[in-house]
Amino acid sequence: MQTNAKQLPTRILAIGKGQYHINYAVQQGFDEQGNDDFNYITAHVNGEPTYDLLVKSIIADKYTVDDELAVINNYNCDKDVQQYVDYLQFRELAKWIAIEDRLLTLDEVSAYNASLKKIRVTIPLSKVVEGGAYAQLADMLLKTRVIHTTINNTIVVYLSHIEPEHLSILQSDADVIID
């Protein structure tokens, strides 16, 4: 949840009865009188703030259990794949926030989140089937389940990295879209 305070928060705040808050993505500003004003994200932690519980709490602050199940089930039905990619990216972000032992700024969280972005490559299906220009790539990617077909006879691949020599080949193909 988005939180605002007049003092810089601590990373972990004990709020009593075995309850804690983990605070992150702090951005300092000023109120109308010119006094410090801090905006940040707070996730509620119900129990001792271990790494696992911090990760779960940060994720639960953004996704309810029903939301998580819907995202995962939609992905398994080849629907809303981008939502699943976004969900996995947020999970990685939550793990990083939980393992850091300091209060993170909004700029730090944004920069780390940006580093987790996947490269989306859209290729015509005809180019990845047997005999197509990218058939070997498709065989490899299918084994790791990063490839998805769509209604308009294209496949979408989500990659963390593309080697420069592969990128130049894909970029020179007018039928390939790289986001």
Structure characterization notes:
This protein has 179 residues and is α+β, with helices and mostly antiparallel strands. It folds into two domains: 2-109, no CATH class; 119-178. It has helices spanning 51-62, 65-76, 81-99, 106-115, 135-144, 164-171, and strands spanning 2-5, 12-16, 19-30, 36-46, 119-124, 147-149, 154-159, 177-178. The strands form two sheets. A four-stranded antiparallel sheet has the order 1-4-3-2. A four-stranded antiparallel sheet has the order 6-7-5-8. Strand 3 and strand 4 form a beta hairpin. Helix 1 packs antiparallel against helix 3. The two termini are 30 Å apart. The model has no long low-confidence stretch (mean pLDDT 89).
Low-confidence stretches: none
> Could you state the order of secondary-structure elements as H and E?
EEEEHHHHEHEEHE
Largest sheet: 4 strands, antiparallel
The number of helical elements comes to 6
* Radius of gyration, taken over Cα atoms and rounded to an integer in Å: 21 Å
Whole-number count of domains:
2
Structural class of the secondary structure composition? alpha+beta
Sheet-strand content, in percent, reads: 25-35%
How is the largest sheet built, in terms of strand order?
A: 1-4-3-2
Helix content: 25-40%
Distance between the termini: 30 Å
In total, how many beta strands?
Answer: 8
- Taking all residues together, what is the mean pLDDT? 89
